[in-house]
Amino acid sequence: MLEKRLERILNVGHALDHLVLLIFPTAVIAIAREFSIPYETLLPLTFGCFVAFGVGSLPAGWLAHRYGRRPLMLLFFFGTGLSCIAVGLVTTPWQIGVTLTVMGVFSAIYHPVGYAVLSGLDPARMGKIMGVNGLYGNLGVAFAALVTGAITEWISWRAAFVLPGLACLVAGAVYFVVTRGVPQLEPHALTGSVRTRREMMQVLLIFAVLAILGCVIFTATTVVMPKLFEQELPALPSGTFGVGLIVCLVFSIAALAQALIGALLDRFSLRAILIPVTAIQIPLLFLVAHTQDWLLVAVAAAMMFSIFGQAPIGEVIVARYAPADIRARFNAVRFAVLSGIGATAIPLAAQLYGLRQDFSLLFYVLAALAVGVFGVALLFPRDQIAAQTAPAE
User: Fold this and answer.
1) What does DSSP assign to residue 114?
2) Tell me, what CATH number does 378's domain have?
3) pLDDT 10s digits, 340-367
4) Quick count: other Cβ atoms within 10 Å of Cβ 66?
5) Which of 83, 150, 236, 299 has the fewest CB atoms within 10 Å, measured from its CB?
6) 224's torsion region: left (phi>0), alpha (psi -120 to 50) or beta?
């Protein structure tokens, strides 16, 4: 029962973590009107937030290893909540930039530390646990624009920061109560087919290449999706709200892949799931470059379903094969590196869009990267279906 409650509040934390990071890109439209400052001048204020979100995971993993995961998770909930509220209370653009960056520092804690906590739960359900947690994170991504737009429209852009900040504080209080007096759950070292350190390092090297290429594909597709729909769906109603609604629908459908793939990982081997998930991305990315009107929505939903579905596979690989005693630090380095590499997808998308004023070249490049992902997936060793618990190293 305790593990179930802990799992639920960690899932809520994951959704809030991604939601608060994506408040500003929507709220900035109203902020620009209030301060009479151009949109393109204000948008870079969130750059520090995303840099801190990646780089901040490094000290978070080290601090969790030194002082324990519970204090760090409490710092995540309360620090993120208070800094998010502060964004809604400041009065100048530079103050917004500073408070957003501080929020990025606290929000960086979740992935290296929260995932380490999750990896200490039931090893027999690890695929499902990671899949459902990923589902919550992607729902945070999917609903960020709608939640922010609605609160901004009905109340104010300041409330769009304050209310989610209060939600973080409430979630932190729940986490405090749920974990009070409970000894720290140690991560399980799960094994598939890996028997030697050399084989373990081979699996993690394959995972690193999969993660790097997959992160570029994920970032590029999620960033360009609103503009893609705006350009290719001329009959779309309600302007930007209509675009946000369609994007939310596509991402919500795609988010279901996290739970589905996670459940399948508890029944089938990693390799048996990884290969078809990566293979289907190639034709779907290519098709998006040649599809228009409402058929594009269906193809994009299938494409994002496969891209989102790759995430829980990576988390289970780490949970099964990364040494348990360094997993938090491993995750910290992983998220810091991937955040930096994933960010390169943004100038890539802008550059390729500028050449032809459409995204066809971008999706050709992403399809080529997906071929690389599939090729590396074929190198993944055959592993056992059921993970077994092994003592931490």
Assistant:
1) I
2) 1.20.1250.20
3) 677 677 678 777 877 887 888 999 999 9
4) 8
5) 150
6) alpha
